[in-house]
Amino acid sequence: MPDGPVLWISNHLADKIRAHGVETYPHECCGALLGKDHGFAAGAEPKVENHGISREVLGLFPLVNRRDDSPRNRFSVTADDVREAEKAASAQGFDVIGWYHSHPDHPARPSDYDRDHAWPWYSYIIVSVQQRVAQDMTSWRLNDDREAFSAEGIEVRHRAAV
């Protein structure tokens, strides 16, 4: 298991994120990650009952990229989008634990724009889509000082962990 926080996601949901990125190519896709935070802090001993996972993605809430001026390399969501994602999560007994988006023809690592518009605590999955083909998928968390992201381990599983 990697050191520090780990985000678990089923193969099915990871495939849905990849498909969303391909569907919206050459524009960025975006959506909310719905699930559970198990509170495994970096450096802490994992709780046996949680199998050492930090967070688990149990559902997705795809959103429309509201960015009109540069949707190819930027995404935007509205406050109403956030509220709708929170309602959808709550209805399923989950929380919004993060956000996902694609990087068309760019690597799956956060940009300065991503950092400037992110919030600490949340997980941020980025999928690289190269010429309509989904490639790498990574996960990140914005540091509390908002200066940089830290890589978050991502475990793609055939089924939910818990």
Give your account of this protein's structure.
The protein is α/β, with parallel strands linked by helices. It has one domain: Cytidine Deaminase, domain 2 (3-Layer(aba) Sandwich), CATH 3.40.140. It is built from 3 helices and 7 strands. It has a 7-stranded mixed barrel. A hairpin with a 2-residue loop joins strand 5 and strand 6. The chain is globular and about 35 Å long. The two termini are 16 Å apart.
Brief descriptors of the model:
about 160 residues; alpha/beta; Cytidine Deaminase, domain 2; 7-stranded mixed beta barrel; 7 strands; about 20% helix; globular
Question: Briefly, what is this?
Answer:
The protein is an alpha/beta fold. 20% of the residues lie in helices and 36% in strands.
Care to count the β-strands?
Answer: 7
Distance between the termini: 16 Å
- Share in helix: 10-25%
Oligomeric grouping of the chains: single chain
Please give the count of helices.
3
Give the percentage of residues in beta strands.
35-45%
Strand order of the largest sheet: 1-3-2-4-5-6-7
Largest sheet at a glance?
A: 7 strands, mixed, barrel
Query: Secondary-structure element sequence?
Result: EHEEHEHEEE
List the helices and strands and how they pair.
Layout: E1 6-10, H1 11-24, E2 30-37, E3 55-63, H2 79-91, E4 95-104, H3 112-117, E5 123-130, E6 133-142, E7 149-157
Parallel strand pairs: 1-3, 1-7, 4-5
Antiparallel strand pairs: 2-3, 2-4, 5-6, 6-7
